[in-house]
Amino acid sequence: MRSFMNSALDTPTCMRRGTCDPIGGMNVITHLIPRTNETDKSIILFVVKADATAFFKDLSYGGEASGGSMVTLLAVMKALSQVRDNDPANKFDTVLSSEFMVAFLQAESFDYSGSQRLAYSLKNGKFGNDAYNITLDDVKCVIELGPLSISNQIYLHADKSDDNVDQIKGLFAKYNGEGAAISFLNSTQLPPSSLNSFLREDSNVSVVLITDSESKLLSDAYGSRFDILENTANLADNIKKLAEIIANVALQFAGGTESDHVVVDLTLITDIQQCLLVNQNCSLFQDLLNQTDLKDSRLSRYSSIGHQTSNYTIYLNNLMLDLSKTELNLEQEKCNSTFSTGWDAYWRNGSCYGSLVNNTSARSPAFLLNEYNSTQYSTWTESRWSPSFSLRVFVVASRAEGVTLFCCGFFYFIFVSLFLIQCHRRSGQIFPAHPSQC
Fold it and tell me: Which helix (H) or strand (E) holds 112?
């Protein structure tokens, strides 16, 4: 079998030859309330690495690398959505001075391609539509959730001290020792993270990284097929408590107060963990996708190429739709188009719901600018498989036929050998000598 993959010296060479594709995929982003041109509220942007990598791409699980942080941010998003719908003391449109936006970033394993594209789009006014009418100047603070699966000792990393960063650290300090003995410690160093993509575009933006490590990763299996989470039961309890703390801190940072509606169902967290980190053939995904024949295996989170949407992105889209939705009082006939208030309406299980989940490209700005030698942006590509495919088939005889041919050949060899020996012994009779003639 011949199945050839093209290769080249580097990205500029293969892009010129047309033998590779940029690594990217699609970021999954949602705003928790519609935003119009008249809105002047600042944005609190939550981001998390959504992809994973390993030597074999189908074994890219990323359990400890980003699995726990993804589940935590989904739980935070669910808690804030409950406050939006049920808590009049924290009304998003009138009480809060800031709004919330959540981004699950793809291709972060390849030099932070997804966050680079998001930061570039915000900086240059090329992001989204009317529902996402924001620029980087509108962002009050970017909060990233890093690895959160191993330790209850949480570090708040920031590159500088400003009013926003100091306020966030002060709010977290109020919850030290709460829940599962969660403690929050401050760090003045910012490790490699998606936040650096935003700082490259605007060094004045406030950023905070929430993670369970101070100076080095706690996971020994980072970036390998062994990066899986086994003890998800204990992790679910920690995620519940941490998510509720983060949601309450976010509310207060946005100008609101602590809310009794910041309660995350432990069963929901367990279900999300089971689907994202253990087995994609789970009841939650089956209900959301209305399918029962999902693949019975762990979910690989390897980034797609170009603007392709992977199965994992489809799962994440539907999950975010369900967790961030709000119920709209609309009949089914009017529910299949954008609602007048800005919600994207859809019909499910006999009710009309609105959400703002959207996909944006995670392809590096280097490919948007055709700067394949860029030192500022990621330039990772993946070689293409050649369209030519050949297969040569060699027919092998059955075992019985093979044994028969061997035996026949063996006996024929014995027979011929004996015959030649007898001929040699009787050569004098067969070929009598003749006297020489003078």
Answer: none
